[in-house]
Design a protein that fits this description.
Layout: H1 2-23, E1 42-48, E2 51-58, E3 63-67, H2 81-84, E4 89-93, H3 110-124, E5 129-134, H4 136-147, E6 152-158, H5 174-190
Parallel strand pairs: 3-4, 3-5, 5-6
Antiparallel strand pairs: 1-2, 2-4
Helix pairs in contact: 3-4
């Protein structure tokens, strides 16, 4: 009996230690699955600045535009849309060369991509909207607020940067490398040109004052 007590006591300590070890893994060190978009009220492609921009709208009310980060697509807003659409018209778009949107020979640049957002707002008849963006989408939001203040009612910018030189070497991050691999698969599944995505595109960082992208996608 004494032996069993010792055994179970030791087993309990091992289980507690294992649980504590598992809890030390921070959530930001894991890559959650990409959510699916809810059913949109309207969706389509708009001819803007020489490319075809894919968009979708949800709900009704004061408009809010959601702008995704580099290499991603609008599906990543799948969890936020149902909540926002309860009181807002939610507009999502795939940036040029991302997801379902096409690109042309023009180099990627924040000024150009911000102009795409304005073009889509014009296409949808939206005079002014709140803007929410993360990473590249956040930088687009900042650009819109600075250069088109009359078109932005509010701005929430998450993980933007004003100078890419301060960004850490994300190539050493297992989570970011998982994201790059997944982004390539998602591009292949969504894009009209599924083979025009090259691995390692996220590593080409530039910081030009003329508005070139901090995350420059290396695609044909």
């Amino acid at each position: 009996m004494r032996t069993l007590k010792i055994f179970f006591s030791a087993l309990g300590l091992v289980l507690l230690a294992t649980a504590a070890s598992a809890q030390t893994v921070q959530r930001w060190l894991t890559l959650p699955p990409t959510p699916a978009l809810p059913t949109p009220q309207a969706t389509g492609h708009a001819a803007i600045n020489g490319v075809s921009i894919w968009y979708a709208t949800f709900g009704s009310g004061p408009p809010v535009v959601l702008l995704h980060g580099g290499l991603a697509n609008s599906n990543y807003w799948g969890h936020q849309i149902p909540v926002l659409a309860q009181k807002h018209q939610v507009i999502v778009m795939d940036s040029r060369g991302h997801g379902r949107s096409t690109r042309d020979s023009q180099p990627y640049g924040y000024d150009l991509m911000a102009s795409d957002v304005i073009g889509l707002m014009d296409h949808l008849g939206v005079a002014r909207a709140a803007v929410v963006g993360w990473s590249d989408g956040a930088i687009l939001g900042l650009s819109l607020a600075m250069k088109h203040p009359d078109r932005v009612s509010r701005l929430f910018a998450f993980a933007a940067n004003s100078d890419p030189s301060g960004v850490k070497d994300v190539a050493k991050s297992p989570v970011f490398n998982q994201f790059i691999a997944r982004a390539e698969k998602e591009y292949g599944a969504l894009s009209a040109t599924p083979r025009q995505y090259k691995k390692g595109s996220s590593g080409n960082r530039v910081g030009k004052s003329n508005g070139e992208c901090g995350l420059k996608a290396d695609r044909d």
